[in-house]
Specification:
alpha/beta; 36% helix
């Protein structure tokens, strides 16, 4: 594999469940791959939904994220190729259910993922980490390893609850564990522009995050909901759908922030 510039590690995180973290992790990773970026998707969630959603049978995983974190298996030996070109996956297997508890007894437990990923620097342009819906040790490991974090939020009132606390957690990790991490931004998911409350939430987030709020919003979409049951990203399942175009737009916006000229993909 050719050597690339320093790898960016982006954690997709929020302590709330049901806010589109896994959908965003899978489809942002897939969209980056479609733009020609060598990308690794890491499934850090014991539920393993990013694994199955990327086309890998999670029940058959014998060597994956758990082994890289807790059994000193070299990360490159846990990586599986996805059906999508330029997209690889570090999968979550059945043993990830106990990972949070097992990490508690480890020395330097918050840095296990960062240590595991060091040999991959320069082998991928982006590593996208799907975090569990909590602020436990697995999420802290993701934040300790990441250079950036993207927060996913629904366009509803309760989505704003806990946001300040999560941002404070990121800042604490930055000051104590990982000075490299910054908030890349916030993306609104399951967004319906016809609902006035959704627009109000967007306005409030714009005031809070400023330019860090992504202009791209992810719509509520049946096709997005269907894709994981087929083991496919939306860009394999229905790239012309609103959801497919939204994730291409999100990846394009991410790349444009880095000064890269993005050619529109139909």
């Amino acid at each position: 594999m050719k050597t690339l510039p320093a790898t960016e590690i982006i954690a997709i995180a929020n302590q709330k469940g049901g806010v589109g973290k896994t959908t965003t992790a899978i489809n942002l990773a897939a969209a980056l791959a479609c733009f020609g970026q060598e990308t690794l998707l890491i499934d850090l969630d014991p539920q393993g939904n990013a694994t199955s959603g990327a086309g890998i049978d999670k029940s058959a995983v014998e060597s994956g994220t758990y082994q890289a974190l807790l059994e000193s298996v070299p990360a490159e030996k846990t990586i599986k190729a996805s059906p999508l070109e330029l997209l690889d996956v570090m999968p979550s297997g059945p043993d990830m259910i106990s990972a949070e508890l097992d990490l508690a007894d480890e020395f330097s437990r918050e840095n296990k993922l960062a240590e595991a990923l060091k040999p991959l620097d320069g082998l991928y342009r982006f590593i996208i980490v799907d975090c569990p819906p909590s602020l436990g040790l697995l999420t802290i490991n993701a934040l300790a390893a990441a250079t950036r974090v993207i927060i996913t939020l629904q366009g509803e009132y309760y989505a704003l609850e806990g946001l300040a606390g999560f941002v404070e957690t990121v800042n604490r990790v930055k000051s104590v564990v990982n000075p490299q991490i910054d908030i890349e931004g916030c993306v609104l998911t399951m967004f319906d522009s016809r609902i006035s409350l959704a627009q109000q939430v967007k306005t409030e987030l714009g005031a809070y995050f400023g330019e860090k709020l992504f202009k791209t919003t992810i719509p509520r979409s049946v096709r997005l909901a269907e894709a994981p049951s087929h083991g496919k990203s939306i860009l394999q399942y229905d790239p012309r759908s609103k959801g497919g175009q939204a994730y291409l737009s999100l990846a394009g916006e991410l790349l444009a922030r880095r000064g890269w000229e993005v050619v529109k993909i139909d």
